[in-house]
Design brief:
Layout (H helix, E strand, L loop, with lengths): L10 H35 L3 H6 L3 H24 L7 H27 L2 H48 L9 H18 L33 H8 L5 H9 L12 E4 L2 E4 L4 H24 L7 H30 L5
Length: 339
C-alpha cells in the first residue's frame, strides 16, 4: 500500500496518510486481541473433531477470526454513514454492499475449511476474489460506475424473476406489478446504454463497460468479462489460482467430501489439509487486503473526520490480514501432517 503515498501530495495529506499507516498496526493489534477472545469463546463451546485438527493452525485461525470480527464492525460503521446523501452516496452504497458480501463470504470460507469441505471453500474463495475485484473497479470508477453497478444488479435480478414467473407459479405477482417492474428495467437499460456501443446493459458485467479498453478496429469498448475486470483491478496474477479453484477439487467429490488426515496415528475425517491452507486460506486473506483497501479507502471522497476513521480501519484490517498470511505460511512450511 506504499503506492498510496504520492510525492505530489500536499503536506497536510501526507501527514494524514502517515498517521493512518503508522497507526493501523496498533489498531490491527486491537482487532487481534478481540479475535483471540472470539476464538477462545468458540473453542470452549465447540469440541468437534474439526476443531481438534484445526488447533494445528490455531494462530492462523485466531487471526482469521479477528479479521472477520473487524469486518463485521466495519460494516456497521459504514452503514451509519451510508445515510448521507451527497455526490458520493452511490459509491458508499455500492461499497457497503460489497463489504458486507466480503464479510459473509470470508466467514463461509472459514467454516468450510475448518470442517474440511475443500471444494466448497475453494468455490467461495472464487466468489471472494470476484467481490474484491469488483470493489476495486467500483472504488476507482467513482459515482458513475457505482450507480451502473447498483442498477445492473437491479436489472439482472428483475429479469431473472420475470423469467421465473413466466412459468406457471402460484406465487407470481399480479400482471400489473410485473409490468411495472419490467418498465423499471427498460428505463434502467435506456439510462445506461452508451450511444454507439454494441454491449447491451443486460449482459454480465455490463456495468463496467466504460472502464474497458477500446477495440482496435472501431474504438468501441471491449465487452466486459471477469478476466478483463481482473486486469483493470490489477489482479490478473490470480487467474491461474482461480482456474485451480474451479477444477482442482471438484471432480469426484461433488464439493462435499471431507479430508482424511492422520494425526497421532489416528485417522480423522476433518480439518483442512496443508495444501488447502496454501491454496484457499492464504489466498483468501490476501484477497481481504485488496477488498479492505478498496471498500474502505474508496468509501469517502476526502480525508475528513470520518474519512480518516474509515481509512484507518481499512488499513488496520489489511495489516491484520497480512499477519494472518504470515501465520498460516509459517505452519504450512513446517507441518508434518500425513495424508
Amino acid at each position: 500500500m506504499q503506492q498510496l503515498f504520492d510525492p505530489d501530495d500536499a503536506p497536510e495529506l501526507r501527514r494524514e496518510k502517515a498517521f493512518i499507516f503508522g497507526t493501523a498496526p496498533k489498531l490491527a493489534g486491537d482487532f487481534l486481541r478481540a479475535g483471540r477472545e472470539t476464538r477462545m469463546s468458540r473453542a470452549s463451546k465447540d469440541a468437534s473433531v474439526a476443531e481438534d485438527i484445526a488447533h494445528v493452525w490455531a494462530r492462523g485461525w485466531t487471526v482469521l477470526d479477528a479479521v472477520i470480527n473487524a469486518m463485521e464492525q466495519s460494516s456497521a460503521l459504514m452503514f451509519t454513514r451510508s445515510e448521507v446523501l451527497d455526490d458520493h452516496a452511490d459509491v458508499r452504497e455500492a461499497l457497503l454492499l460489497l463489504q458486507s458480501a466480503t464479510t459473509l463470504t470470508l466467514r463461509e470460507i472459514s467454516e468450510l475449511l475448518r470442517a474440511g469441505y475443500l471444494s466448497g471453500a475453494a468455490a467461495r474463495w472464487r466468489a471472494l476474489h470476484e467481490t474484491a475485484v469488483t470493489a476495486v473497479v467500483v472504488a476507482e470508477g467513482g459515482p458513475s460506475i457505482a450507480r451502473r453497478y447498483i442498477d445492473h444488479g437491479v436489472t439482472t435480478q428483475l429479469l431473472r424473476l420475470e423469467a421465473f414467473y413466466q412459468q406457471p407459479h402460484p406465487d407470481a405477482p399480479p400482471a400489473a406489478e410485473r409490468a411495472e417492474r419490467m418498465q423499471l428495467v427498460a428505463d434502467l437499460i435506456a439510462k445506461h446504454t452508451i450511444p454507439g456501443e454494441t454491449v447491451s446493459f443486460r449482459r454480465p458485467y455490463a456495468w463496467a463497460t466504460p472502464v474497458m479498453p477500446a477495440r482496435a478496429k472501431d474504438g468501441k469498448h471491449l465487452e466486459p468479462n471477469f478476466t478483463r475486470l481482473e486486469a483493470v483491478a490489477g489482479q490478473i496474477d490470480m487467474r491461474l489460482l482461480v482456474q485451480h479453484g474451479a477444477h482442482g477439487h471438484v471432480h469426484n467429490d461433488a464439493g462435499a467430501v471431507r479430508t482424511a488426515v492422520l494425526k497421532d496415528g489416528n485417522l480423522l475425517l476433518a480439518g483442512p489439509r496443508s495444501d488447502e491452507v496454501q491454496t484457499v486460506a492464504i489466498p483468501a486473506l490476501r484477497t481481504i487486503v485488496v477488498a479492505a483497501a478498496a471498500t474502505h479507502l474508496g468509501f469517502e471522497p476526502q480525508l475528513d473526520e470520518f474519512g480518516r476513521l474509515i481509512s484507518l480501519t481499512g488499513a488496520a484490517i489489511a495489516d491484520l490480514a497480512a499477519t494472518g498470511v504470515q501465520a498460516f505460511e509459517s505452519v504450512h512450511r513446517s507441518s508434518q501432517m500425513l495424508f
